[in-house]
Every structure is written in structure tokens, then in C-alpha cells.
Amino acid sequence: MPSDVPTVPKAEWRAPRRDRVARIRERLRDVYGVPLAPPHEDPLAELVLTVLSQSTSDRNRDVAFLRLRRWFATWEEVRNAPVSEVEEAIRPGGISKVKSQRIHDILVAIEDTNTSPGTLDLDWMRDAPVSESRDFLCALPGVGRKTAACVLLFAYGLRDIPVDTHVSRVGMRLHLLRPGAPFEELHDAMLALTPPGAELEFHVNLLRHGRRTCHAQRPRCASCTLRATCPSRRA
Ligand code: SF4
To answer: Alpha-carbon torsion 24, 30, 31, 35, what sign?
Structure first.
């Protein structure tokens, strides 16, 4: 929650008008374009990558992920390995003790729910109802709405939207999202204001805007393309 945006109680909140949301999406598209990221169809990799991304840079996350893939040929090998070996493999990603245990617990939990013993398979999500897949993912150890949305959107192009720190900050400053809303509400609200098919573009462009212009500290409001419509703009 950005400290410069006052919390709005739920009873006083009015969702943004659709035409305003559409104009914001268009302005962001003018500046950042349309992201090209076809679904990679590897939900396990997306799950593990999201665990590795916690509290570290994208670069360190990627180094840790590549080391993990080099050390172990399959996800089954990762699951069966001593947690200390996984910890060593992902050490460049930081807090490796916590993350290695989390990865192990997730892979074990997935195996426990699979009909074929010994396998790790989430391919059924490609054709399952999104709500069923989301509930399954959110029941895994340490997995919440953001991680579930990453898996569903990036692996299969399904209808969900991750609300990370950048998306929530920019969304709240623009009053697309209710300032002070809990994570569950933020994800539901993002879905409600995003038309089907625009999930990836809106997520990526809000994130880019948060990284390049609407910084947590000292947002660059003077040069912001959304300045005219932003209730949080600074002089
Ligand atoms: S005007 Fe400022 S606070 Fe509003 S979106 Fe732009 S950078 Fe962020």
C-alpha cells in the first residue's frame, strides 16, 4: 500500500468507470506497446520461478532458476533431492533455506494430489475451469492469489491477473483499485475492470509504468502520461 495514498473504506469506494479504464489502457499502450509473451505451457516452472522471485532482483531469480534446472533434469528429481541440495542450487536467489523448503513442499503437495503416483503434472489446468485451477494452486503451501495468477496467465494465457507491488501501487494511485484493499479484493477488482483478452497487456503495462515512472518513492508525475487522470498526481 503506497503511503502517499489515503485508505478508502470499502463502503465509500466507487469502482472506476469503464471508459476511464479503457482510456488508461490506451495511454499505457501508446507508451509501452503491446507485450509479446505467448503462454509457455510450463506451470511447474512458473510456480518455482515465482517462489524464487520473492525478495530478490529479476537477475538473481533467473540465475537461481537456471542453476536449479542445470542441477536437476526433472521436477521429480528436485522433489526427491535433499532440501539442502536444492538450497545450494538456488543460493544466488537469496533466502535459499526458506525457498528450497517451499519448493520441496509444493512439489510434494502436487504429487499427493495426482492420480498417477510419482508424477508431477499440472497439464490438466489447460482445459479446467479457471476457478478450479486457482483454488488448487492457492491450496498449495505458501501459494497465494498472485502466484496462482502468474501460473494461470503466463503458463496458459488463462483469465487471471497478478497484482504485484507495482500493479497495486499504480492501481491505487490511479484509483483503479481501492487504496488499502487486501490482496484478495485487489485481484478480484483487477479482473472486474479488465476485459477478457487484455489481461497480459494491462498487467505488464501497469508494471512497466510502476518501474519506469510511478516509482514508490518520488513518482515522476511531471512527465507521466496519466497525469491528467490521476487523483494522486504531485505538483
Ligand atoms: S501522475 Fe504520478 S502518481 Fe499518478 S500515475 Fe503518474 S506518476 Fe503515478
So the answer is: positive
Cα 191 to middle of ligand 1, angstroms = 22
Q: Is the CB of 205 under 6 A from ligand 1?
A: no
- pTM equals 0.92
**What pLDDT was estimated at residue 189?**
97
Q: Ligand 1 centroid to 232 CA: how many Å?
A: 6
Domains of the chain by start residue, with CATH: 10-36+160-229 (1.10.1670.10), 43-156 (1.10.340.30)
Per-residue pLDDT tens digits for 28-46:
999 999 998 899 999 999 9
Exposed, middle or buried, 62 (CB in 10 Å: 0-12/13-18/19+)? middle
Is residue 230 in contact with ligand 1, taking CB distance under 6 Å? yes
Average pLDDT of the residues in 162-186: 96
Is the CB of 98 within 6 Å of ligand 1? no
> What pLDDT digit, counting tens, does each position of 128-168 carry?
999 999 999 999 999 999 999 999 999 999 999 999 999 99
- What's the alpha-carbon Rg for the chain, to the nearest Å? 19
What helix, strand, coil percent values describe the chain, rounded to 5?
Answer: 60, 0, 40
Q: Which amino acid is at 4?
A: D
